[in-house]
Amino acid sequence: MRALRESMGLSLRDLAARSGVSAPMLSQVERAETSPTLAVAGRIASGLELTLSQLLRLDEGQHVLVVRAGEGRTRLRDGHRTDELSPPLPGQRADVSRHLLEPGAATGGPSDPPLHEPGARETAVVLAGEPTLVIDGADRALGAGDAVTFDADLPHHFENRGSETAEFLAVVAAGLRRS
Q1: What is the mean pLDDT of residues 67-73?
Q2: What CA–CA distance (Å, rounded) separates 94 from 120?
Q3: Which of 36, 120, 126, 148 is the right S-S partner for 116, CB 3.0 to 4.6 Å?
Q4: Alpha helix segments (H runs only) across 8-106
């Protein structure tokens, strides 16, 4: 728990303010001097932006997770396929996904909005096709091998205006930029 708190840049007092659990109690839990009740553990989890089940799994010790081809979570919406390549882990601050856009398709439509927290950054690497990044009112034409990095909390979406399927990888790193 301490490593996660510190990786988030939180002091004991910060976590106490976010969770409603006193700093001395948090310190005792971190040092394994006491075990919190489920109610207190739930408040600590909330303060760390985790579910209770994620918090309870922090000490499982599995440090390497492989997501095999075809085993990740997949979403299909209006010609846009997203394959989540990162497993959901407690405290994870970056996600990697693969996107396939059929000709004429776009990300970020009414049924497919981008949901990024304030301060998030995104880097996309085009593997095939010629997607266009539409961000903050401007178009950025991209081609295979191109990479683009931008503030992901700005209104944005990718469009495939070409005649071939566009494929790109996206890495979203949460909360890196100070808003």
Answers
A1: 82
A2: 9
A3: 120
A4: 12-19, 23-30, 38-47, 52-56
Query: In this structure, are residues 121 and 171 in contact, taking their beta carbons and an 8 Å threshold?
Result: no
Instruction: Please identify which residue in the block is written with the tokens 């890196």.
Output: 176
Residue 128: is it exposed, middle or buried by C-beta count within 10 angstroms (0-12/13-18/19+)?
Answer: middle
Is-contact 151 175, C-beta < 8 A?
A: no
73-173: what fold?
Answer: Jelly Rolls (2.60.120)
CB 41 within 8 A of CB 55: yes
Q: Which CATH superfamily is domain 2-56 in?
A: lambda repressor-like DNA-binding domains (1.10.260.40)
Paired tokens of 57: 């799994």
Non-local CB neighbours of 125 within 8 Å, separated by 6+ positions: 146, 147, 168, 169
Tokens of 5: 């708190």
CB 107 within 8 Å of CB 101: yes
Q: If pLDDT is split at 50, 70 and 90, which confidence band does 142 have?
A: very high
Least trusted range by pLDDT, from 65-69, 76-80, 99-103 = 65-69
Which residue, among 113, 111, 135, has the nearest Cα to 124 in the 3D structure? Answer: 135
Instruction: Give domain limits for the chain.
Output: 2-56, 73-173
